[in-house]
Amino acid sequence: RDYTRVMLREVQRVNRIVEELLELASPRRLELSKVNLHKTLGDILILQKRAVGKKKITFQQQFDPSIPPVLGDESLLIQLFLNLIKNAVEAVGESGLIRVTSRVLADYSMTQKGERRARMVAIEISDDGPGIRKDEMEHLFTPFFTTKPNGTGLGLAICHKIISEHRGMIKVDSDPARGTTFTVMLPLIQ
């Protein structure tokens, strides 16, 4: 029974790695629809609050109510934000603060050839964990790079791919004294 249990667990782990590799490698056509980012983020936070169990993790959300629905692939955006929020939960450990905010960026806009200028919306996911070392920062989005004992190193690479497919950008700020903030910037294309 012990061998069977271990084999099943390892098969599930290998299956997860293969699925993540396929997700990273395979081009997929975006299924675009109007996505309410605040509802999506709120739902993820509700699930994560339940998932942390007895840990003393506080979740704060501060959303700009003026942000309209964005054009995006809802399932991919859920995967993106769920991964970033789960990473924040892992970073704080047994206790800490995770803050999720949204705002329209006044100083950023983007243009594509043949399109008019589009404003950007920023979703920030911050934690007060130990931060990310400088030597690790440059490899964060590299496939198979991980600092976690059981990590595959594919989560942030997939996040980067999802953001690129949505014509957005991601920025990371980290400081051992303050923690880490991932900022996802997406175009406000109506």
If you had to describe this structure to a student in words, what would you say it looks like?
The protein has 190 residues and is an alpha+beta fold. It has 5 helices and 7 strands, in the order αβαββαββααββ. The strands form 2 sheets. A 5-stranded mixed β-sheet has the order 2-4-5-7-6. Strands 1-3 form a two-stranded antiparallel ribbon. The chain starts with a helix and ends with a strand. The relative contact order is 0.17.
* Biggest sheet overview: 5 strands, mixed
Number of helices: 5
How much beta, percentage-wise? 25-35%
Q: Report the strand count.
A: 7
What would the average pLDDT be, to the nearest integer?
Answer: 85
Tell me the strand order in the biggest sheet: 2-4-5-7-6
Distance between the termini: 55 Å
Low-confidence stretches: none
Could you say which structural class the secondary elements and strand pairing correspond to? alpha+beta
The helix/strand order is HEHEEHEEHHEE
Share in helix: 25-40%
Please tell me how large the radius of gyration is.
18 Å
Quaternary state of this entry equals: single chain
Estimate the global geometry from the Cα principal axes. Answer: globular
